[in-house]
Amino acid sequence: MGDQIGRFAHNLFPGGVLVEAGPREHSDAVLETKKLMADPSVTAIFEAAFEHAGVRVRVDVLERLGSDSWGLREVKAASRLKSVYIEDVAIQCWVLEGGGTHLDSVELLHVNSGFERDHGDIAWDQFFCRIEIADEVSTFSEMLPPMVDEFLGVIAAGEPPEVEPSLHCRARHLCEYWDHCTRDKSDDWILRMPRLTRKQFDSLSDAGIARVVDIPEDFSLHSSQRHMCEAVRSGEDFVEHGLAEVLPGTGPPASYLDFETTNPAVPLYPGTRPFQNIPFQWSLHHDAGDARLVHCEFLAEATGDPRREFCETLLAALRDRDDPILVYSPFESRVLENLALSFTDLRDEIRMLRARLVDLLPIVRDCIYHVDFHGSFSIKSVAPALAPGFGYGDLDGVAEGGVAAAAFREIASGESNPEHVVRLREQLLAYCARDTLALVQVHRALRERISD
Description:
The protein is α/β, with parallel strands linked by helices. Helices cover 41% and strands 18% of the residues. The protein contains 17 helices and 13 strands. It has a 6-stranded mixed beta sheet with strand order 1-2-3-4-5-6. Strands 10-9-8-11-12 form a 5-stranded mixed beta sheet, sandwiched between helices. A hairpin with a 2-residue loop joins strand 3 (55-66) and strand 4. Helix 3 crosses helix 5 (134-141), helix 15 (379-386) packs across helix 17 (418-451) and helix 16 (401-413) runs antiparallel to helix 17. The chain is globular.
């Protein structure tokens, strides 16, 4: 998505030229950039390449402002300025100015979340917001020289530094070396605890406690953390007595529902905005209480806005029932409310359906813990742990929500060949059906715990 948004930003700079040399051809890219900078007919350079003091950068857009004056333009597939973007731009400015390129302006180009697509071509000057960030970059730049020296020292060392994995490893996003650095950690390592706070982690680490089994019984923990401790210490499932009180009202008979949505940065359909969640698929399993499952599903064709048909087919599938509809997160409820606001003629019926939703996630989180959860209450962790033999490993291609969203965007683009579209649709149907089967398995496992 980031690459796509970067290419669309080129529309704002007519006369701009792309540096063709790739990331592994940096020296060639630097030479190509110098030639383009020397050509006054080139109004902007895309993917301009520079190097200074051992640091290499590629600039999204270098805009010519005068005979010897330039503007750096950083493009982000985001709806607002984030502090990490300042760091990103600051290192680029440091390299350019260190090499003698004078910058009169530094801008961030981000997506305008208030933009609404109409039936014509996208007006890119309205789609993007341009904000000047030179002052913010200048403030951060003062810290760069010692940081660069430190980073170059790490590279020159030849061996990775000894850094104990901690909460910093997932502060902004999960570090790509997480699995490598934690491969020797025990299954009950304290950082695997759900909702672990910095204060808790620091207190346990300072006391030399690295495993859940060694946490003192008087240490302050919230309920799901206590449940994990009890399960790890006993080697058996922890089941809260309250499970028997909250579960009977959930059926069977019951229905099990899962949605897939996509939130493209560039709106696909008229009347939609950047990053707006567009539901395009649902899967529904029904258990009448006789151990037989009935399945129905919907997957949009992607040739137009799927929301109306999504609503109508879902309402038709559930209209003649009054059983609870089990989901696993508040996500489906939020999607339904947004649809109710969009389609006033269906609003009452959508809200009646929404009132039947029962979220299994808080029931699981509050009432049960299995050691194979490994601190996660994701359905992909919970279902295989509670129902051995169930899993997602055999799915081909699409096996995660983000991948499903990307697959639908690919279908909607109309750029894939028909055979590939057929495969993507098969993968989407298999994945969404697996999610509702996971709900069935979790619900049955919970009922079995009550019986036991």
